[in-house]
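Lab manual, section 2.4: Encoding a predicted structure.

Procedure: take the sequence of the chain (261 residues), apply the prediction step described in section 2.3, and record the output as structure tokens. A sample record is shown.
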Amino acid sequence: MFLTSEQLLFASVLMAVNIGLSIIIRLGMGKQWIIASLRMPAQLLLVGFLLDWVFALNNPVWILGVALFMTTIASITAVGRTSKRFAEIYVSSFVSVLGTAFFIMFFALKGILQIDPWYSPQYLFPLLGMVLGNTINGISLGLDRFMDSLSVRRKEVEMLLSLGATSWEAANELIRDALRTSLIPTINSMLVMGIVSLPGMMTGQILAGVSPGEAVRYQIIVVFIIAAAAALGSTAVIVLAFRALFSSRHQLLFDRLRNVN
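Recorded output:
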């Protein structure tokens, strides 16, 4: 089914519900909803135009270049959601997102789906978008929790260090707690999938005419890919944050941590 511009315009009327509720209940979010309603379609249309162009070129340099650009924006966005930062945080986020995305995408496309070439844009970009979206959520939650915990439990960590504990021993509980926090949304989503919610990719495939059984198989693979990416990305960035905030002499470098806003 081909959607017309008129249908897209008609769908935008639904946003009047959000704006109306914001005005009636005095949430003060009317302006934000309007900006988001204009920005989201503009961004998606621009991406659609860009991907059409990249698909037509079918050049690995451009394909991987766009993928790298998406990864860079994702790593910056992940940091933008944190309330505390350290000097190397953007580099840590970029390395974590890039490493996770490359490993997961290569494993999924080359190993599981057996796409040849593995960087085929038809498969790479949709999967990469889902992987990045979930990875940055995990990174944001994990980083925020780890750095907040360091601030709140600073004296406890420094006491453990003064009593002879290594940096890893002093921060181990904080790291595990941050990782649990980063993965809660992914686990919760998996637990209710198919019972409470029907995932977007599965729904899109069914609307496109794919049989529900085939759509389910693809969705299961995608969920496993996303879950692995969220875990790897979160673990990598929290470990890098740990290395940046503790010295080789097992000292907490709390002065490196600064509040944002």
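Check your result against the sample. The beta strands are 84-85, 258-259.
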